[in-house]
Fold:
Amino acid sequence: MTVVIEKPEKTGTAEPPAPAKEARRISRSMVIAAILFVWLVLFAILRGKQTLTLAAADLTDLHRWFNDVNDSIGANRNSNPLFLYFFNEIRLVIDSVVTFVQELISQPAGDRPLPQIGWLGVVGVAGFLSWAVGNWRVALLAVAGFTFLGLQGLWQESMDTLALTLSAVAVALLFAIPLGVWAGLSDRFNRILTPFLDFMQTMPTFVYLAPLTLFFLIGPASATIATLIYAAPPAIRITAHAIRSVPHTTVEAADSLGATRRQSLTKVLLPMSKRTVVMGVNQTIMAALAMVTIAALIDAPGLGKTVLQALQSLDVGTAFNAGLAIVVLAIVLDRVTTAAAGREEAARHSKNRLLAWRRQLLGAGAVVAAVLVYLSHTYVWAAEFPGEGGTGTAIRKGADNVTTWAQDNLSGLTNAFRDAITNGLLNPFQSLLTDSPWWLVGAVLIALGVVLGGRTAGITTAVCVGLLVATGVWSDSMTTLASTAVATVLVMLLGIVFGVWMGRSALVDRLLRPTLDAAQVMPPFVYLVPFLALFGATRFTAIVAAVVYAAPVAMKIIADGVRNVPAATVEAATSAGCNTWQIITKVQLPMARSALTLATNQGLIYVLSMVVVGGLVGAGALGYDVVAGFSQGQLYGKGLAAGLAIVLLGVMFDRITQAAARRTTA
Structure:
């Protein structure tokens, strides 16, 4: 039985679809099918011609020009006024901030062989601050988490990562919060700023690194600058949203009492949006931690460098131990800032007597933390973490043993799964993209952009296709596009299955959502480790890691879309005799089309980011080009062009899917 529901918010009953709308929907599907059919026919005729293939060591004129620019900048870095009085000064300021924080908690300070605050002081301060902004449970989690980092034998690496993260977040918030407030107060500024934020959040983490090393050299300063640029947009967006969400009646009441614009901001808007702003800080910290680990590619110290070196040597045990430390650090930072966001509301529900006791206990806690800081500054036993990281050794050995067992006992299953996806889906699609003439693939992409997203999306796609050709890495771009498309299809299959299940069952949602939230906290690096153990260093490893990385966001978006379908509509379909399968396929999924399109958009962006990171474990294509550009000077220009190609793919995906989402909801 087929039931189609239209405009449920007005009628709440089943009505037949409008013929014109149904005809348009069918004609669009037919146009897409016709485009693909023509592509396949021409592919069979023109296969292998005009593919713009470029060998790994070959360079184009653009790549050589980028190399020359890099050499010229290096030769004139200390004489060019732009560098002397601008870029070098920025690098000096950021480097000073990073050095100060590192000497405080992770690196030897001056003549001291140890940092100013040793492990005992850091644990004490972390516990006290977590208690002050959150509660005693979060404080215990912070103390246990930081202690576990030391037991893993990764104390200094963890503190280096924390130092870079805190430095980047502190600098990012200095301009992100004011920009967010400005965007929240001014519609015009918000319209100007939004495209830049969209662009910054569309770019995968890899892409920030290469151009910044051109101006700020390789090292912690460039890593911190890349991190703060990547981490600032969430704080700006969420702060602007918080300011705009304050009820207009409240602002009007303050104005009627004679409040100035500044008083209205400081006494009304900011206090009432504080919780949401803190949530923005949470997102900034998570983004910064993810970027700091990736920045190991440009010599950023910390856990990311340990993971990178282990991945390059296929040392799964070491990579797993360091990856686990990143997860622990991410969970602690996430829970502390999340608790801070809800602290004010919890305080309002607390009794005054309990609040008074809390203040006294916090005072005592501050004294204890100060004593621990003094001890860690004065005595070696309180400064150096005791032991030799026995827990980390056990974790490494355990991970290696599990890897060996999996390879010995599961290789048949994992290899069969890998070969089925690779030979049945990835290889044919990659061949279609890479062996077709470049102009044919470009025409198909432009046509699909027009059909799915409209004229503007088609123009954007045409510009991106032209620039992709100009980068000289067309073939590698198509290889990355193939991996991204295959991974996105798998993400959407998982997203629909589990998203519908979560949307229809509150119990399933309560059980799965915490796991999905935790999965989104983990930086991309971490996802590569377990799949490296299962599948080895292959492009399939990157695809599976990308699927697992991107699936949580798709599942949650689809679940929310299914849940938002009006209950009256579902009841009407049930009363008409529909079974569960018909309700899902004929009512809930069609009415959640906008959520499906948004999930596709986010899935594509997440997958592209992860597929590129997979260049570290044999994924090849653009990811490999970027990594090779950092490690081999003669390939720097090609790596920079590959980074530009990644941006173009991201912009093309984002614009087409966003335009399709708008047309779906229109």
Notes: The chain is about 85% helix and 0% strand. Residues 316-349 form the longest helix (34 residues).
